[in-house]
Amino acid sequence: MTTKLIRIRPGVGAWMAANSSGNAGAVIGRGFKVIRNQNWMIIVSGFFEPVFYLLSMGIGLGALIGTVTGPGGHQISYAAYIAPALLATSAMNGAIYDSTWNVFFKLRFAKLYEGMLATSLGPLDVAAGEIFMALFRGFLYAVGFTVVIASMGLTTSWWALAMIPVALLIALGFAAIGMALTSYFTTFQQMDWINIALLPMFMFSATLFPIEAFPEVMQWFIMTLPLWHGVELMRQLSVGHWDASTAVHLTYFVAMSVLGVAFATRRLRTLFLR
Amino acid sequence: MSVIEATQLTKVYSDLRAVDAVSFRVATGESFGLLGPNGAGKSTTMRMIGGTSLRTSGTLLVNGLDPETHGPEVRASLGVVPQTDNLDTELNARDNLIMYGRYFGLPYSYLRPKAEELLQFAQLSEKATEKVDNLSGGMKRRLTIARALVNEPSVLLLDEPTTGLDPQARHILWDRLFRLKEQGVTLIVTTHFMDEAEQLCDRLLVMDHGQIVAEGSPAALIQQYSTREVLELRFGSDRNVALVERLRGYADSIEALPDRLLLYTADGEAVLARVRADGLDPVTSLVRRASLEDVFLRLTGRSLID
């Protein structure tokens, strides 16, 4: 009974001894080696997705719409209105893909983590290394997309540079929660639920039109969803305008990241050790 | 000193007692085998030793440490060869060895020459820059074993090391494993091949349905649970079972398999002569030495390979 208690409530030091050798760097080293070898195409294709959305919706649809009311009541072009929202969405999609489908595949089919976990690496090292690689990929996308929209004149403030670290914060929140959720899944069919949740969130989170288009009850519901906070935050940064809501959005993602990492950490042994 | 001490080791999945109160010890430098059919609990036991599967109850010490609470430290001195190859398909053969060493926190200055040494050991030096997917089954298996040696482990866990290999590849592998044994590496092998168990293991645990059914050296197990010789008779699938009663008095015991009858006796030729003299004319007959296969059959009533 005593040993059982010790196993359930270990101290931080004991937990680290069970789950980490402090060598997430080796997992990251492996990630970079693989990128150098072959994976540039995957990275490049991920960069183009939001660019295509921006060109078709922003330029195409934007010609019909003209200007819309942006943060602080300024009139901005429709392309400038959706560009930051697309960056937030792309950060979310990339992080979710890497932390769910990618993790699931490497766990169940490529058996990559099985090999890693037969070494000194613990589940924490593997998770931290993989989340780092997901964020690195998100960083490349964010830099690329920010350069694109800035060169198209869709940002009006140097604060737009802050969109890059904020994209990483959004990605961290989603990646941590995604990895924790993956620990509950055993089949590809269950993984599809993630897409079923993400697509409507993209459509309705004030990405392509203002939230005021919805009845008030629905607005309140959307405001509980993470992507809406990401979209609004990015939009404010792109024009360098803030108010009290900026702090709320930031706090939302800091909290989501902290809770997400805690959640993923709790599920770590269930995910990797069966 | 014991490398492994397992006491009442148990693993229960939602609907299955995969390992059921198993206790055993493995001494330093010993070659220890877990023999049993698929689903006997061998692989689960191996994963618990490596700390990658969490036990339901019981205690387990590997080099004096609990792999569940000190996984990274325990695995630093283990080499794990899993049942199915899990090489990194996104890296070439050499980088598979180097990266795996990095996971142990070993420096490149050690790993670069070590990788060449291991490629040579696995007879894969010419394939160093080849993608893993382009290697044959035997080459992948040898690379997996070479990879498990990168940290110079004191204990090597081999889960079905030669399943799926052709006879030549198996013998190359056995030779390599035998050299490691000579160097003092403790080998823990699971297998459902009796010849492999006889070749590699000093001591065996025979497992079935998650439980230990017998323990001892291959020779001792055969002596204890079988006769010296076995007479195999085939009368055709219709007549085999029908003749069991009639042959009962000829041997110490009889096992009826779907395709043949096994008569356990000290002198196979003599029994065969008496069977023939009795007017029974088997389609084919064979006298052979008893093996671990017979031990398993006697203990469980089933053959090792279904």
Describe this structure in words.
The complex is a heterodimer of chains A (274) and B (306). Chain A is an all-alpha fold and 274 residues long. Chain A has one domain. Chain A contains 13 helices and two strands, in the order ααααββααααααααα. Chain A has helices at 2-8, 12-19, 24-37, 40-65, 78-99, 101-108, 112-116, 123-151, 163-182, 188-204, 216-224, 226-239, 244-272, and strands spanning 67-69, 75-77. Chain A has a two-stranded antiparallel sheet with strand order 1-2. In chain A, a hairpin with a 5-residue loop joins strand 1 and strand 2. Residues 1-6 of chain A have low confidence and may be disordered. Chain B is of the alpha/beta class and 306 residues long. Chain B folds into two domains: 2-217, P-loop containing nucleotide triphosphate hydrolases (Rossmann fold, 3-Layer(aba) Sandwich), CATH 3.40.50; 227-289, 2-Layer Sandwich (Alpha-Beta Plaits). Chain B is built from twelve helices and 13 strands. In chain B, strands 5-6-7-3-8-9 form a six-stranded mixed sheet, sandwiched between helices. In chain B, strand 8 and strand 9 (211-216) form a beta hairpin. In chain B, helix 3 crosses helix 4 (108-121) and helix 3 (93-103) runs parallel beside helix 5. Chain B is globular and about 75 Å long. Chain B starts with a strand and ends in a 6-residue tail after the last helix. The chains are: A mainly alpha (274), B alpha/beta (306). The A-B interface holds A 3, 7, 10, 14, 17-21, 23, 26-27, 29-30, 33-34, 37-39, 110-112, 114-122, 125, 269, 272-274 and B 50-54, 59, 68-73, 75-76, 78, 80, 82, 84, 86-91, 95, 99-100, 102-105, 148, 151.
